[in-house]
């Protein structure tokens, strides 16, 4: 089975160039009934038209490794199982690695490349530095794959399969992962700095970023449900807990206790790297509790709470309510969105790296 970007319902111009998200963007703003953002809309569409050619071809298939490396999926599952049992944070690490890979040049393993004398990698980008983890786990899985089928399974596919297994192993949904990605021979620190979303960005900026990648508003809200697992550093939620947290939350006893706890581990001006769970109710389980917390105004990151509390978030707040009420719809939309995100390919093609940290010599 081949899944092509055409199936993602992305509008195209007569030349075949995608006008990614144009219709979605218009719909989002219309539903937001906000004329204030018209100028920004024009700006965003201009940006999208200029940056949309990076997602041309996707010829991934579910059977790609059936003959080439029949045990590939089992090897990844076994290693992920072991790693997540050992420390559930490994599930969060793998899921985020796949996301940060796909949002920069497409899902091509570029996030995994180390700095060399000739190439600066993406690991020092604002959203990655002191934050992205899981590289050792990737090395372990890659070693096993190379032992069984040398030079066959790409690092980009390893991340896509690993992310699916990660979600499944902590109680989330299963989906079939189309495979056959190639690893890039290039990296882009600049793109990593511009394209990875940041927690202090507002809803309009976040939505336009996702639309620029061919992902809809629904995809974005569903994908953000990933914050049902994993941890965040104080530096990323300080503004929120000393800012509008009290206003968005119901200021009841539970919210107050939660806020005090957050503030005691994350003071106003130090301990930047202190960690707190993104979902304090069930931090190691992939469920829909994240949306329940956002509904209560208790989202940890400003970007999470924007989904529900932004003045222009009519569509997003409806989706938050839907996912909080129905975990199965959340699981279905999340799985669909993960496949879409995984289909963002790098049209330049590439190779199958022997070591995920370096291009083949
Ligand atoms: C609006 C878009 C997003 C923003 C602004 C955002 C931002 C963040 C931030 C700031 C952190 C904490 C990092 C730290 O403190 O070091 C984080 C963690 C995480 N994010 Fe996101 N994120 C977004 C979307 C996503 C998506 C789409 C996924 C997956 C598909 C994802 C998966 C994760 C996971 C699993 C963690 C926990 C990682 C860990 O524990 O090591 N995020 N995100």
How would you describe what is shown here?
With 361 residues, the protein is mainly alpha-helical. The protein has 3 domains: 2-56, no CATH class; 60-193, Peroxidase, domain 1 (Orthogonal Bundle), CATH 1.10.520; 217-339, Peroxidase, domain 2 (Orthogonal Bundle). Helices cover 50% and strands 3% of the residues. The strands form 2 sheets. The chain has a two-stranded antiparallel ribbon with strand order 1-2. Strands 3-4 form a two-stranded antiparallel sheet. It is globular. The site of protoporphyrin IX containing FE has 24 residues, from helix 5 and strand 3.
Which helices and strands, and how do they pair?
Elements (H helix, E strand, L loop, with lengths): L1 E2 L18 H11 L5 H14 L8 E2 L2 H5 L3 H15 L2 H14 L32 H14 L6 H15 L19 H7 L7 H10 L4 H7 L7 E3 H8 L3 H4 L4 H13 L9 E3 L11 H7 L6 H8 L4 H12 L1 H16 L19
Antiparallel strand pairs: 1-2, 3-4
Bound molecules: protoporphyrin IX containing FE.
Quick take:
The protein has 17 helices and 4 strands.
Instruction: Look up the CATH topology of the largest domain.
Output: Peroxidase, domain 1
Ligands, ions, cofactors: protoporphyrin IX containing FE
Count of separate structural domains: 3
Number of helices: 17
Distance between the termini: 33 Å
Average pLDDT, rounded to a whole number, is 88
Radius of gyration: 20 Å
Order of helices and strands: EHHEHHHHHHHHEHHHEHHHH
CATH level-1 class of the largest domain: Mainly Alpha
Strand order, largest beta sheet:
1-2
Tell me the helix content: 40-55%
Query: What structural class should be given to the helix and strand makeup?
Result: mainly alpha
- Gross morphology is globular
For the record, the CATH architecture of the largest domain stands as: Orthogonal Bundle
* Strand composition percent: under 5%
Secondary structure tally: strands = 4
């Amino acid at each position: 089975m081949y899944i092509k970007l055409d199936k993602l319902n992305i509008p195209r111009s007569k030349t075949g160039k995608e006008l990614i998200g144009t219709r979605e963007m218009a719909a989002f703003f219309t539903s937001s009934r906000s004329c204030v953002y018209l100028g920004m809309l024009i700006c965003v569409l201009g940006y999208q038209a200029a940056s949309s050619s990076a997602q041309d071809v996707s010829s991934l298939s579910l059977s790609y490794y059936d003959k080439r490396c029949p045990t590939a999926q089992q090897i990844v599952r076994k290693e992920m199982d072991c790693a997540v049992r050992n420390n559930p944070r490994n599930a969060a690490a793998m899921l985020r690695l796949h996301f940060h890979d796909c949002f920069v040049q497409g899902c091509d393993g570029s996030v995994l490349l180390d700095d060399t004398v000739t190439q600066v990698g993406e690991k020092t980008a604002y959203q990655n530095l002191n934050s992205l983890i899981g590289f050792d786990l990737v090395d372990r899985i890659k070693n096993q794959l190379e032992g069984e089928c040398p030079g066959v399974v790409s690092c980009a596919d390893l991340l896509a399969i690993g992310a699916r297994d990660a979600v499944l192993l902590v109680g989330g949904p299963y989906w079939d992962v189309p495979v056959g990605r190639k690893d890039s021979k290039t990296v882009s620190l600049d793109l990593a700095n511009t394209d990875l979303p940041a927690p202090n960005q507002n809803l309009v900026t976040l939505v336009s970023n996702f639309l620029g990648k061919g992902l809809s508003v629904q995809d974005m809200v569903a994908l953000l449900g990933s914050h049902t697992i994993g941890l965040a550093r104080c530096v990323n939620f300080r503004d929120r807990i000393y800012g509008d947290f009290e206003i968005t939350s119901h200021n009841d006893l539970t919210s107050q206790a939660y806020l005090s706890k957050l503030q005691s581990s994350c003071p106003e001006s130090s301990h930047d790297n202190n960690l707190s769970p993104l979902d304090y109710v069930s931090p190691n389980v992939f469920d829909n509790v994240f949306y329940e917390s956002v509904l209560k105004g208790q989202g940890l990151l400003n970007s999470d709470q924007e989904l529900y509390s932004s003045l222009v978030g009519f569509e997003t707040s409806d989706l938050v309510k839907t996912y909080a009420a129905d975990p199965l719809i959340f699981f279905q939309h999340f799985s669909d969105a993960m496949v879409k995100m995984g289909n963002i390919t790098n049209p330049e093609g590439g190779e199958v790296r022997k070591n995920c940290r370096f291009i083949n010599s």
